[in-house]
């Protein structure tokens, strides 16, 4: 595996971006960006992020900070997760009455057949 080869060639190197302080900064920047995205959801998205995520220009500053604070693989992961959650929410919020649990007829709605 490539990662194992890299790790064995640099056994004493500490990757600062995975330490607690850096992860906290990444999470804070991520939350700020997605909060902006929700707050500005009524505006037309004009900017393109990873995995096809679109966002309004008003969130560009928080996006830049998010990308700067996190590993690129994490940014893609969080973008995919956000898109997946929005897609599921959209399906659940759809006004189509056929979605959701079916209401089955209750036994009392049937008349008993006369026995002969």
TrEMBL record:
Keywords: Disulfide bond, Mitochondrion. This is Cytochrome c oxidase assembly factor 6. Residues 93-116 are annotated as: Disordered. It comes from Brassica cretica (Mustard). Gene3D superfamilies: Cytochrome c oxidase, subunit VIb. One of its GO terms (cellular component) is mitochondrion. It is found in: Mitochondrion. It comes from the Eukaryota.
């Amino acid at each position: 595996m490539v990662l194992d080869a890299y790790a064995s060639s640099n056994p004493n190197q500490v990757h600062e971006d995975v330490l607690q302080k850096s992860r906290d900064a990444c999470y804070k920047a991520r939350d700020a960006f997605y909060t902006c995205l929700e707050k500005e959801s009524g505006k037309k998205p004009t900017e393109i992020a990873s995995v096809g995520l679109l966002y309004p220009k008003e969130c560009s500053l928080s996006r830049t900070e998010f990308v700067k604070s996190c590993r690129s693989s994490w940014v893609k992961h969080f973008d995919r997760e956000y898109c997946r959650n929005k897609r599921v929410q959209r399906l659940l919020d759809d006004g189509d009455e056929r979605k959701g649990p079916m209401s089955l007829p209750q036994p009392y709605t049937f008349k008993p057949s006369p026995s002969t």
